[in-house]
Amino acid sequence: MSSFSLPIQGEQFFCPIIYGSIAIPITKKDPPPADPSHTHRWTIFLRGANGEDLTPIIKRVSFKLHESFVPPTRIIESPPFEVTETGWGEFEIMIRISFMDSQEKPLQLFHQLQLYPKDEAADPDMDAPKQTIISEHYDELVFNEPFEEFIDHLRRFKTTPIQKRIVSTHFTPEMEQQEIKKYYAVNERVMADVEKWKHKLARHENEKRKLEAEIRALEAEMS
Hints:
alpha+beta
């Protein structure tokens, strides 16, 4: 984009998007994952709300995964804007959207990867529910007074002028308290799940050490 591009006064556009994840339990019929402890194959994605091509306005999408993934940051520069991996745990993923117009500030979104039904806390001592979990969110990319060169991209994408839409929201103190309670409830469930998985990992580590000791003892007897 030209550094001399000027903002268009009074112009506002929005682009509806959907972002989220889909998680599918790994079964014996599926190709085995690289890590045998992984229970799900999941995909994190960002797309147009109605399947629109986002390339006229989005230059790249970065997905910041958990640090245990190598590499943890995945940069996607062409559709589909998505990343597929396998794993056993839930964590927050940061989605960073960079626009075709470098003068538009990149946007960050956050999504909590969900592998299990919300009404069922994951128990590491039980088999994972054989259920596909889809967790997605609707949002809108809003462009206020976009720069003149970028506005051509917006019109080519056929975004709808925001003036034609009527949005009315009422967020009361009671609703705020309800959201806070939900947050704490979810946080407690996540922390409980983390402790369960820690105990399971510790048990597996102990079993691994015992097996390694038995193998060494057998090798010593055979030598």
